[in-house]
Write a structure and sequence with these properties.
Two copies of one chain form a homodimer.
Chain A (H helix, E strand, L loop, with lengths): L1 H42 L2 H12 L7 H16 L4 E13 L5 E6 L2 E4 L2 E3 L11 E8 L2 H12 L3 E4 L10 H6 L3 H12 L4 E5 L25 E4 L1 H13 L5 E6 L3 E15 L4 E11 L9 H20 L6 E8 L7 H12 L3 E7 L7 E8 L3 H13 L6 E4 L9 H4 L4 E7 L4 H4 L12 H21 L2
Helix pairs in contact in A: 1-13, 2-8, 4-6, 8-13
Chain lengths: 466, 466
């Protein structure tokens, strides 16, 4: 009886102790996370750093002088912050240049209406005098294939399937339309087309052409490819409907070219782990951007948030257990060479990557994280950590992709958990790959909340593992 | 035994039936909600209506020609949509005018530095030649009181406590700073000050003065009150610190005046309930705006979303059980007379208000709803309806205020549930009451998602009651 009572009392005490300890741990975590947010919101550097990257350096397409400047500046920035190690990873990247600004107009009888276009990345130029041809409008690759060579030969193919406005996440609309941009030139060339123009990848009706990557295929003729603004696409489509068959022509002139691959770099800053330095947690974004604007949301915000994560810890005098890395990947936009190189070196060095966090969906207000894990990390993260992050607008931690640059790590570093920082997506395609992706369109607090969210998650992974 | 078995079987069947029926009901609701969103996102009118309100009508301060035009236009808009009843509620409103644009500069020795200011709403003018005086900077009403009359008399009091960047919800920062704007002139005048200038109510460092309401008190001298841009406030504060004591003066000239109260209107559109027409569910925002800009987010988005809720139902041929009302309140900004009148008439008419939904926190991406209920509606809404709204970025339904305009209904219509539509708050104070609150700063999809969220909640309340 006494033994039993003793046993029960001990069990009870133990249970209470566990609850109390776990409560204390939760409490200590929530205090630490609050401190992270205070630092980011009250004394953050992300916004001013982003301003420098956008306004003093500007466009950073792979192989450009801007890209090289951004490498040198972010390296110096992290050195000045006093991170333990700052280094470069050499990587050869594609080097494409837009050249002289494009010209395009709709020729409707004697009427010549200029429309905003931009060559797609990797496209070839037109002949110097430009291309003038009739236009075939299609809504899909399948529709094009069904038209056949007789109809398409010698013409400019105009891909005009708009974004579907119905999906709530705008990336779903992007995925539903981007085959036109990526694959359009190949399929059109197979049928003898002389060029393609592609409706810009955005919900918005505006005058910005949105560039972006496109592909050619071996053994298929390369033809010039350009994005047209959505307003331009609407106008062209209307002209094609209103005018006599065959009377509308389109003129396109672009000057772009691909140079030999150029030497560039991933830029990496590290805080070395105190107890488990061989275990690596990375936060990253891509340093390169398209050439039309400042690459503010794509992906200046992601790289400056990544540097900010380490700066926050440094300013708080936090000593991580594991090694924390801020990684600025080169060449996400037109090659992914930086991401591939990082994974290759991680594998060659037999590095133990616990988690890789990527921010490449814009610097907008936080929504959550998406997790791609070979282990069963998701349930635990959602159950144990989400309550700590909910007060900070992190509404879910759910299954999903980590991001393009960290994707190659999945095979290169088995066991790694890939995590995408997921901000609100509504405004992203308003500015994606277009000349309005500028610093002025970034809200300071939204940017800082993202950096703090990434830091808070990094802290939890560092403390608890995955 | 048999009876018992029969009973158990019956109970089991009944339980299964309830689960199945409830499953079917949930499913029908989720289909209906998806249709609401499809209509709003694919065929919505809110964005084009907002463009008209902002660009063709513009500023709509109570008593102004713009306010009157907005009354006439929204009435016609709802009539053209074919709502069952569209009518006006007469209400006398304050009529304050800014007059000639303000002038202000810092006088630092021989240096004259112009800074952006805007008279606060309801303020009196300065004398025609303006006011020139030394400046006393304070961070709080308490700090001012402690200075005492000897220090303050004859001077301009400069309230310069910034927004606290640490709260995640920006409205918390606003609430923490706005006493300076509302009460500052009273407390300063008590100590003999000649005017007050108040740091603009925003996190952002920029050049926009943000106006807003302020009060005078009976038996306290009225002194002119103006908002100064945050950059202007930082500059003035620096000059005061750097310069010899007493050498910095400030010059303020403003021309504003209060005219006799003017006749204006709340504008109301109704769809009559089919089975319970006496039970009213309202959705609303305020039609008036400050005079400095287009009142896009404050509160053009709220009124156009409210009209859109009824238009969506009309376009879907949905026959509400209860009576649905879109209410455009007049004079939220400087008097709340429209909200008070609406409640007064609801009480006089013994109207049975089930729920009132208000959208007056900007047309930003959705976060949730806040609920102020005398009944125990909140738990049920959160438990039963939140799962239906989660796919649409509604992350919570939680306790909180409904909004200024519907506030007076609480006593006037006992049992009403007051509900605030809660968009993301990060960008709101960038544009609040300032000249950059324009149509261009509204994102189409964010606006539409808000309208759809309000319609979805209205549908659920209409179907299930509260």
């Amino acid at each position: 009886m006494f033994r039993n009572l003793y046993f029960k009392a001990t069990t009870l005490c133990l249970a209470l102790l566990i609850i109390a300890t776990s409560g204390r741990a939760q409490n200590a975590d929530s205090i630490m996370i609050r401190k992270i947010y205070d630092e980011a919101l009250d004394k953050g550097h992300a916004y001013r750093n982003l301003e420098y990257l956008c306004k003093k350096i500007g466009p950073r397409l792979s192989g450009s002088a801007g890209a090289q400047k951004s490498v040198e500046w972010t390296k110096k920035l992290m050195e000045d912050y006093g991170f333990d190690t700052v280094y470069l990873q050499e990587v050869m990247v594609p080097h494409w240049e837009r050249g002289v600004k494009e010209t395009a107009f709709i020729l409707d009888g004697n009427n010549k209406i200029t429309v905003p276009v931009a060559a797609l990345g990797s496209s070839i130029a037109t002949p110097q005098k430009g291309i003038t041809a009739q236009v075939i409008e299609v809504r899909s690759l399948d529709e094009l294939k069904n038209l056949g060579e007789n109809t398409v030969k010698g013409k400019i193919v105009f891909f005009n399937r708009p974004f579907n406005p119905k999906p709530i996440e705008t990336f779903d609309a992007y995925r539903g339309a981007v085959d036109q941009r990526g694959q359009g030139a190949i399929e059109a060339a197979k049928l003898g087309a002389v060029a393609v123009i592609v409706r810009s990848m955005t919900h918005a009706l505006d005058d910005y052409p949105h560039t972006g990557g496109m592909r050619y295929a071996d053994n298929v003729t390369k033809i010039p490819a350009a994005a047209i603004s959505t307003n331009g696409a609407e106008l062209l489509s209307r002209k094609l409907k209103e005018s006599k068959a065959g009377s509308v022509q389109f003129y396109l002139k672009q000057d772009c070219r691909t140079l030999p691959d150029a030497l560039s770099y991933n830029v990496i800053g590290e805080m070395r782990g105190s107890s488990d330095p061989e275990e690596i947690i990375s936060v990253g974004g891509h340093l390169d951007s398209w050439d039309l604007a400042e690459g503010a949301h794509d992906d200046g915000t992601g790289v400056m948030q990544s540097v900010e994560v380490l700066r926050i810890f440094k300013s708080m005098n936090y000593k991580p257990k594991r090694t924390l890395r801020a990684v600025m990947f080169m060449n996400e936009e037109n090659g992914l060479r930086g991401g591939l190189k990082y994974a290759e070196l991680a594998k060659a060095g037999n590095e133990k990557h616990i988690a890789a966090i990527e921010s490449d969906a814009g610097g907008f207000t936080p929504r959550g994280f998406s997790v791609d894990s070979s282990k069963d990390a998701l349930a635990g993260m959602s159950q144990n950590w989400l309550p700590l992050l909910k007060p900070y607008l992190i509404e879910d931690i759910k299954a999903g992709g980590g991001g393009a640059d960290i994707g190659p790590l999945r095979n290169a570093a088995p066991g790694v958990t890939l995590i995408g920082y997921r901000p609100d997506s509504q405004r992203y395609f308003d500015i994606h790959h277009a000349s309005n992706d500028v610093f002025e369109n970034v809200n300071r607090r939204e940017l800082e909340l993202g950096a703090a969210a990434m830091a808070a998650l990094t802290y939890l992974i560092d403390q608890k593992g995955l």
